[in-house]
């Protein structure tokens, strides 16, 4: 199983969806929260809200996330991990433009990285419901 201790800072990044259920708004509809994270530190570089009707972020949203991460690290990783079957078009294309290798893995293999972020998000939602 993959684990943050296997990586150096900025060696690999992970793209994932933070929420399990869409975020509903009255004015703008429903969204999913797309994140970009460093695999070693589990630091989230940024978040983009993607319409729930879309399978993945737009090219512009991906570029914004990559630029935000670049601004913090001044380099791109060698590898980008994606959940298998997710984010296979625009995310993969933008990674290729930057010579970042893409590896698709079963989402449960990413839980050591993304599990705490998802749990924190769930807890935040529970506090908002009180």
Description:
This protein is α/β, with parallel strands linked by helices. The chain has a single domain (4-128), classed as Nucleotidyltransferase, domain 5 (2-Layer Sandwich), CATH 3.30.420. 32% of the residues lie in helices and 28% in strands. The chain contains three helices and six strands, in the order ββββαβαβα. Strands 1, 2, 3, 4, 5 and 6 form a six-stranded mixed β-sheet that branches. β5 (79-83), α2 (90-97) and β6 form a beta-alpha-beta unit. The chain is globular, with a radius of gyration of 14 Å. It starts with 11 loop residues before the first strand and ends with a helix. The model has no long low-confidence stretch (mean pLDDT 92).
The number of helical runs is 3
| Secondary-structure arrangement, i.e. CATH architecture | 2-Layer Sandwich
Strand fraction equals: 25-35%
CATH names the topology as: Nucleotidyltransferase, domain 5
How many domains? The number is: 1
Structural class: alpha/beta
Percent of residues in helices comes to 25-40%
Q: Please, what is the average pLDDT?
A: 92
Distance between the termini: 37 Å
Largest sheet entry: 6 strands, mixed
H/E series, N to C?
Answer: EEEEHEHEH
CATH class: Alpha Beta
Which descriptor suits the 3D outline?
A: globular
Show unreliable segments.
Answer: none
Q: Please give the radius of gyration in angstroms.
A: 14 Å
List how many beta strands DSSP finds: 6
